Automatic annotation (TrEMBL):
Keywords tagged on the record: ATP-binding, Nucleotide-binding, Transport
Pfam families documented for this protein: ABC_tran
Entry protein name: ABC superfamily ATP binding cassette transporter, ABC protein
Domain ABC transporter as annotated: residue spans: 5-230
Assigned protein family: Belongs to the ABC transporter superfamily.
Annotated organism of origin: Lacticaseibacillus thailandensis DSM 22698 = JCM 13996
UniProt lineage: Bacteria, Bacillati, Bacillota, Bacilli, Lactobacillales
Stored InterPro entries: AAA+_ATPase, ABC_transporter-like_ATP-bd, ABC_transporter-like_CS, P-loop_NTPase
Keyword tRNA-binding belongs to the record: no
One Gene Ontology molecular-function label: ATP hydrolysis activity
Amino acid sequence: MAAILTVDGIHKSFGSHQVLRKVSFTVEPGHVVGLVGPNGAGKSTIMKIVLGLIPYDRGSVTIDGVPVSITSHRTLGRVGALIEYPGIYPFLTGRQHLQLFAQGANKKQRIQAVVHDLGMEKFINNKAKRYSLGMKQKLGIAQAFLNEPALVILDEPMNGLDPEAVKQLRDLIRAKADAGVSFLISSHILSELEKVADDVLMLNKGLIVEQTTMHAMVNQGAEVYLVRTADDQATKQALGNASIPIMESPQGILINHEDLNDVLRVLVMSNIHVEDIAHVQHDLESSFLDMINSGKGGAVDANAR
Ligand SMILES: Nc1ncnc2c1ncn2[C@@H]1O[C@H](COP(=O)(O)OP(=O)(O)OP(=O)(O)O)[C@@H](O)[C@H]1O
């Protein structure tokens, strides 16, 4: 099936500051794509470009095959978005906001549905000036979902939400994705997207440094064991002699899952007493930091200029 969103070779500078370098990716129908990167990586800039809100220097953006730019917004009627802060009118109620933004048939039913899906019943008839940060965030998310878009773009949607609201939002995103809606969702916390994203784009300093599935990302971090022995020095030497790769950590020696049998064989044959072998919980944030710190993130791709 053709991608709903195609971003191809986007470059963007603010004055002399280049903030995006040759950014390319696609969002397929029914897929949830997580855009992850540290503060200032360029996530919001990508989203604003996709929404035709700011110009870009080079490359192309198409939604449903139709180009999007600051002067071409034709397909944006199929897109729902929450970028940075939700636009709130303090003297309107939440429901009045939704009535204002609803378009097309069955407005009342659609408003009811989104209010229910996001658990907004208790405050939807109060004026927005009395809303907490999380309530405002929910109202912004509700607006993004309201007109049954084919593509939803959410910039840091978990900001300000309590754990119950995060779960409601995750469930809603997954249900909509199963029904064919596509998502581009940013976060600076990779684990926030763990349960919801199908694909992950890692952005650092304006470059996409990794593009993978969330499944591969989670498993990449999961395949590690921590080995504790009576003699770490002898262990390192024996495994080194057997050409088995190890990583050292403050907790002990880390080995890859696929080397476990070989490691045990070598340690037994070397008479090294094994005290403990533990499966190390995957840690998405450290995989992310490793990626960022590996040099990939800071380097300017030679082809990117
Ligand atoms: N209007 C602007 N003028 C000048 N520089 C800008 C502008 N908007 C963004 N930038 C710069 O572009 C870079 C990317 O910003 P962007 O907001 O896209 O990052 P981000 O990944 O969304 O960060 P955060 O997680 O903090 O929201 C930053 O260095 C930022 O200072």
